[in-house]
Amino acid sequence: MDMRFRSFRSRILVFFLGLIVLVQAGVLVTVDLANALNARRLIDEALEVTARQFARQIATRSHELRVAARLLSGDFAFKQVLATRDAKTIQSALANHQRRIGADAMAVTSVDGADIIAHTIPERTDLDPQAFAALIAAAEDSDELESSGVLFLDRSPHRMVTVPVLAPLPVAWIHVGFLVDDRFARELQEDTRSQVSLFWRTAEGGWTDYASTLPIPLRSRLGDLLSDRRPPLDRSFGLDIGGEAFVTLITALDSREQGTFNAVLQRSREEAMAPFFRLRLVLFLLTIVALSVSVVLANLIARTVSRPVQALDRFAQRIEKGRYDEPVHLRQEDEIGHLARSLNRMADGLKEREFIRETFGKYVPESVAAAILKDRDSFAPELRMATVLYTDIQGFTAICEAMPPKQLVAMLNAYFSLLVEVIDSFGGVVNQFQGDAMLVTYNVPVADADHAASAIRTALEIQKRLQAHRFDGGVELVTRIGINSGNVVAGSIGAGDRLSYTVHGDTVNLAARLEALNKEMGTRILVSEATRDLVRDRFRFESMGEIPIRGRSAPVPVFHVLP
To answer: Mean pLDDT over all residues of the chain?
Structure first.
């Protein structure tokens, strides 16, 4: 679509407002989406907390009953009563103990599980011993001779624990349990503010409810919905019940061949999302206010910018044509006025900067660029007498391993800044940064008649500065330095527009070897005989003898520079 405007001011106003609208809409949508995802995550976390709390409550209650059952099984008086095999007496003892511990059901079965000796379940006088067979079998298979699980007694789910009566071998089994019903579900709802339902899922996929905090219509509908689908375990999912949306999490409490006893935990999506909807409304209102303010500000900005922009545009067209002698005149003290004056200054030096952009942008050291500005033929390779200083950090590998990357980079930047400041003060040129190492030259490309002395002064000053300096975190860096003087080949290398000014030759290699030799000699600054001869007696040296150097056929005289 071709949009045409009668004035630059209209263009600024339309596009500025359009940008603001896009940004505001993007922010609103992003924040809204993030809040929605966060709200769902909070619901999921709440359901997971409910599941864990549900499991803890059952485990805590089961543990309490197991302790109580152990006390009863170890009670000598109860063992005597049990030995009588009088069902009414045993039932009376069970009832008394049940009241003390707050249990809902107790039973005693024979050691083989074939007979129920006594129980406290009044609704039924005849219980099938097979109801306890699975618990007894699980107890016999365990190291503690104890087990727990869900049993349906009088068609009601009970969490039961089973412990043996020992004399000293098992002579009977005590079963103690509590009813998992609506009351238990409501207690959990009060603690977690989640809807809690307890369902038995048959092996064929049918769902039967035994307890729930949901209203009765929703409770029966929930069972039908679960039967019609295959809901996942321990993973939340959405479920609409009677027109109300719930986030649901199902966790298994007990599993057996016939089916699974499950806890169905739910949070109302509308109730949980209510704070999010309120936040959405606030964000929308803030967006409207921001857009209203933006209209006013955009109009003011467009009016201020449109008039001087035309003058700047004409000036830019003159610059494009290479006409640098017609400056722009704007009597403004704001940013646009400063821009106009900056453009005028830019035009004054543009010709020279074009040469710098085309030529010197390929070189890193500023001193190299300065030398080339004086002599544009200095690109050509040349053989020249120079002094090379090579420096490296002692133990840098260990420092890297012990320091986070961000802190390491910051420390290296501070270290290089300190060294470059010293090097610049003595006329050196940093040709290369090699990891934590630096290659520095003197008398090339910048002339220095006393280049050897400048290099040694640089080395001494670096050691002095580093001894007094502590980097971030209290780190002390020790630097080893090797210095050598001789002929080097200096010039630019590279390809196309990616060039680097550097030096090559045996002089450079020996400086690097001397730096590495510091580690073996226990020194900080080592120089070659050539460097020492150039400075004569202006510095104090200690002869380290003639040292074999890798790459040299004969040993090399090496000298240690003393402070």
So the answer is: 82
